[in-house]
Write a structure and sequence with these properties.
The complex is a heterodimer of chains A (321) and B (561).
Chain A: E1 17-19, H1 42-51, H2 54-71, H3 73-76, H4 108-144, H5 146-161, H6 164-175, H7 181-191, H8 194-208, H9 211-219, H10 223-260, H11 271-278, H12 286-314
Helix pairs in contact in A: 1-12, 2-4, 2-12, 4-5, 4-7, 4-8, 4-10, 4-12, 5-8, 6-7, 8-10, 9-10, 10-11, 10-12, 11-12
Chain B: H1 3-9, E1 12-21, E2 28-38, E3 43-47, H2 54-62, E4 69-77, E5 80-81, H3 87-93, E6 98-101, H4 105-108, H5 115-124, H6 131-144, H7 150-153, H8 163-175, E7 181-185, H9 193-210, E8 213-218, H10 221-227, E9 230-235, E10 238-244, H11 245-250, H12 255-263, H13 273-277, E11 287-298, E12 307-318, E13 322-326, H14 333-340, E14 348-353, E15 356-357, H15 363-370, E16 373-376, H16 390-400, H17 406-419, H18 436-448, E17 454-458, H19 466-483, E18 486-491, H20 494-500, E19 503-508, E20 511-517, H21 518-523, H22 528-536, H23 542-560
Parallel strand pairs in B: 3-8, 3-9, 6-7, 7-8, 13-18, 13-19, 16-17, 17-18
Antiparallel strand pairs in B: 1-2, 1-4, 4-5, 9-10, 11-12, 11-14, 14-15, 19-20
Helix pairs in contact in B: 5-6, 6-8, 8-9, 9-22, 10-23, 12-19, 16-17, 16-18, 17-18, 18-19, 22-23
Classes of the chains: A mainly alpha (321), B alpha/beta (561).
Chain lengths: 321, 561
């Protein structure tokens, strides 16, 4: 006999009256007070959801490894990336030089390892700055609305309309040979903050309409206090998601600029330069191109996987928590 | 057991129907092996609170559930098995043999097509009719559902009609192919009470005229008492009791049914014992909030005149009293409530709050003044900041006012949680871990943290299930008696008002229609509008409701003359 009610339990075919066994129904379940179990805040829930995803751990492992490489490249290779001998040009791999040599006779493995720092720096700092600029502009526009929203909204539109590679090419001319990783970060941050701003504006408008904001206003909380205490904490999740998912594209953008020769000066090691230099030998020795390109692809993939996992954990619409 | 003999009698026979939803974790069992019959011409009400599975079970029959749903069991309409029906076969059943009426008429109609087009489209998808014949039938149907001038209105777009008229159009569409069964899912929940009464009358008449069987899904016991022949009560995915409507209301057997019926506020019944346990404090003559000739208008869209939300309202709220502000949607009651606490600036007139005229105070003084006020909002999901713990939410007003040390605030939060009958450990938890009713109790605790003299509660229980609402109201009234705050209680629910209000003010189209003590307004209303409003409230008792329906018809006939 199953524990559930079935039609067979009904007394007669007329079934003028049917009443389930009261013993089977726990009325205590009406508006139950749950005091056991772990406290579940938004962030602890998100962490619990994140922890269960294998893709999250794969991306974390990759990013941890890349960070180590970026911080301490010396651990991973004893070769100097700038020690080049033309006599070894295009030599195949030998002991101590696992990937062989490029046209200038430099160790490819060493150059790939040392190039990681530029990509990681540019990616992480750009994501951070775009998030800061975008969040500030978006939150102010969304929260205050009116003419401020009008002006900031048009500025966002203008920056959104400019093709970022074209804009970077022009602005990077200012730095010329003095360009460093930071100047690339600056240029990217200047032009790539608009998606974050749009997301932050939407989140602010949504949070602004909530009763708890009206309640705080009614309590006498000041405008900026409401923004900081209520609006921002409720908008931070989509901002983080947008920033993490776009981090990978910033790394690609730096490589693109360096490849085009308007990014970093040749003195700075970058995967973009390696790819550009490998062009000449692409027909004869494709591997020279594949190693830096592969490293770039892997890094971008790691961050995009992380962004996806974080979005699934933070966005209540996409996840079933 | 001879199910075949039964099937020949029953129009719809549901047996062992189960629905579960696949999720990341455990599958959610929304409906657990339910069984019921609907005979030709019968109205079966499926009653339950949110999450009881009442909507899911009926949608399962029509194949309207998302892909994650797993449906088991059987639902036979005559000899057609509905569970597992696919593609063309299910399309032929939907709209033709079974049709649906949805809760929200404004989203269920396509805004870019005329209502006539939509009705004839429904017709032509099942019947080989010419466009012209279908339109003619659409006019007939609109006439049947009581739309005036159907030949003209058939060319209207949904936005040109009122909510009640849109619901009539939805009903006309549901009737278009003479279905054997109509599934009405909360057909009147989104409507005002006077409009609801008209729609209920319409469904009543249509049943008499056409003899269509109806499954009425609702949480409103008054609607059930008004329409249903039989009632099935659902709780946590199971049918716990099924009986004829008269018997079920008169003699509920299952503890849940008893609990549910006891929790339903009943207009005109004596107040529940708990409300009278504490003697109401003497109504002091001191005026806490006064409005004189108050006007509020909002600028209309370009080219259209401004909207007058409040027009010349005079209102006094005395210390220690609960004044219920009653009205239908668009009556201006919420705007008036916002004015009362300085959240909305009036365009004319004077508001005196706690002895201070609001027009003359500086922003800083207004902020200090507001600390002596409390608020409770309608939506329990939006009234607490989801990123703050319950304790932080409750004591936020103290923090804003820079009052008390961290320890004192914590103690005050514990004290208030106890007052609203929640465990003190809840202070550490987050709003989304609480049920709607528990969140509203937390909102109440927050409103009271500064020991306010005036609390404005805007529909604080209308988003809650009845069994939960009862608890919130009980806590609310007890705290009001204990601490003696004056309260402006804004609501559309007269039955709730009857439970707790000392005085009542009725609003219509921005004007105050009638005000007086609760007894005066509810038992001896002077204005026609108040009378109509009271008559429209469906009573959760089939016998009383049948009488009320007669009275309402008489009243309508009288006012027409």
């Amino acid at each position: 006999m199953p524990s559930d009610t079935t039609f067979a339990d009904k007394p007669s075919l007329d079934q003028s009256h049917f009443c389930a066994d009261p013993e089977k129904t726990k009325l205590g379940a009406i508006d139950e007070l749950r005091t056991e179990g772990p406290i579940s805040s938004f962030w602890s829930d998100a962490w619990r959801a994140l922890r269960r995803r294998p893709l999250f751990w794969i991306s974390v492992f990759l990013i941890a490894a890349l960070t180590m490489i970026a911080l301490f490249p010396g651990i991973f290779t004893s070769e100097s990336p700038t020690h080049c001998e033309l006599g070894r040009s295009m030599d195949p791999s030998t002991s101590g030089h696992p990937l062989g040599f490029n046209r200038q006779g430099c160790d490819i493995w060493a150059r790939v390892i040392y190039g990681a720092r530029t990509s990681m720096t540019v990616g992480i700092l750009s994501a951070l700055f775009t998030a800061l600029i975008g969040a500030t502009v978006g939150q102010l526009a969304g929260y205050f609305g009116g003419w401020l929203d009008g002006i900031l909204g048009r500025i966002v539109d203008i920056f959104y309309a400019v093709p970022i590679v074209l804009a970077s090419v022009v602005v990077m001319q200012v730095f010329r040979d003095r360009a460093t990783a930071l100047s690339v970060v600056l240029v990217i941050s200047l032009f790539a903050w608009t998606p974050v701003a749009r997301v932050a504006r939407g989140a602010a408008i949504e949070a602004k309409a909530s009763d708890f904001v009206t309640a705080s206003k009614a309590l006498g909380l000041g405008k900026y206090a409401i923004l900081l205490r209520h609006i921002l904490p409720n908008s931070i999740a989509p901002i983080i998601v947008t920033a993490t998912t776009s981090l990978g594209t910033f790394i690609v953008l730096e490589a693109t600029l360096s490849f085009l020769g308007v990014g970093l000066p040749p003195s700075v090691l970058s995967w973009g330069h390696e790819i550009a230099n490998a062009q000449v030998t692409v027909k004869t020795h494709i591997s020279v191109l594949l190693y830096p390109a592969g490293a770039l692809a892997l890094t971008v993939l790691a961050f995009i996987l992380l962004g996806d996992a974080v979005r699934d954990a933070l966005d209540p619409k996409s996840a079933t928590r | 057991m001879t199910t075949t003999a039964l099937a020949s009698l029953a129009h719809l026979a549901v047996r062992d129907l189960s629905v579960s939803f696949q999720t990341d974790g455990e599958p959610i069992r929304a409906v657990r092996r339910i069984a019921f019959d609907v005979k030709p011409g019968e109205i079966l009400a499926i009653v339950g609170e949110s999450g009881s599975g009442k909507t899911v079970s009926s949608r399962a029959m029509l194949g309207l559930l998302p892909r994650t749903a797993r449906i088991e069991g059987s639902a036979q309409l005559d000899d057609t098995e509905l569970v597992g029906l696919k593609g063309e076969a299910v399309r032929r059943v939907r709209g033709d043999r079974i049709s649906m009426i949805f809760q929200e008429p404004s989203t269920a109609l396509d805004p870019v097509r005329t209502v006539g087009w939509q009705i004839s489209e429904a017709l032509r998808s099942h019947r080989p009719l010419s466009r012209k014949a279908a339109m003619a039938r659409a006019v007939e149907l609109l006439d049947l559902v009581g739309i005036p001038d159907p030949e003209v209105r058939v060319h209207c777009y949904p936005h040109q009609m009122s909510g009640g008229q849109k619901q009539r159009v939805m009903i006309a569409m549901a009737l278009s192919c003479d279905p054997e069964l109509i599934v009405a899912d909360e057909p009147t929940t989104a409507l005002d009470v006077t409009v609801q009464a008209q729609i209920l009358d319409l469904l009543h008449d249509l049943r008499e005229k056409l003899g269509t069987a109806i499954i009425l899904i609702t949480h409103n016991m008054g609607v059930v008492a008004d329409l249903a022949d039989r009632v099935a009560v659902m709780f946590q995915g199971e049918i716990v009791e099924e009986n004829s409507a008269a018997e079920l209301f008169a003699n509920p057997h299952h503890p849940y049914t008893q609990h549910l019926l006891a929790a339903v506020p009943h207009l005109g019944k004596p107040r529940p014992a708990i409300m009278d346990e504490v003697a109401p404090p003497p109504v002091a003559s001191r005026v806490v909030m006064a409005m004189r000739d108050l006007h509020v208008s909002f600028p209309g869209r370009i080219g259209s005149p401004p909207v007058h939300a409040v027009r010349g309202v005079n209102l006094d709220l005395h210390a220690h009293e609960i004044l219920a502000l009653v009205g239908e949607s668009g009556s201006g009651k919420t705007t008036l409530g916002r004015c009362a606490v300085g959240l909305q600036e009036p365009t004319g007139g004077v508001i005196e709050l706690l002895g201070t005229p609001l027009g003359s105070v500086s922003a800083r003084d207004l902020r200090t003044l507001r600390r002596r006020l409390g608020f409770v909002f309608q939506d329990p999901a939006a009234s607490l900041n989801p990123r703050m713990s319950v304790g932080a939410c409750i004591t936020e007003p103290m923090k804003v006012a820079q009052e008390g040390t961290v320890g004192e605030r914590r103690a005050r939060a514990a004290e208030l949680l106890e007052a609203v009958e929640l465990p003190v450990e809840f202070a550490e938890r987050y709003p989304h871990e609480l049920s709607g009713g528990q969140r509203q109790r937390v909102s109440l605790a927050r409103a009271l943290v500064m020991r306010p003299e005036l609390v404005v509660a805007d529909e604080p229980t209308s988003a809650l299930d009845v069994s939960v609402q009862a608890k919130v109201l009980e806590v609310f009234v007890r705290l009001q008696h204990e601490t003696g705050f004056a309260c402006l209680f804004i609501t559309h629910d007269l039955a709730v008002v009857d439970m707790l209000a000392d005085r009542i003010a009725v609003m219509k189209d921005g004007e105050l229609v009638e005000s007086g003590t609760a007894d005066e307004v509810l038992r001896a209303p002077r204005e026609d509008y108040t009378k109509a409003l009271i008559a429209a409230v469906p009573l959760p008792d089939p016998v009383e409701q049948a009488l009320a329906r007669q009275r309402r018809r008489a009243l309508r006939a009288a006012t027409r003359q």
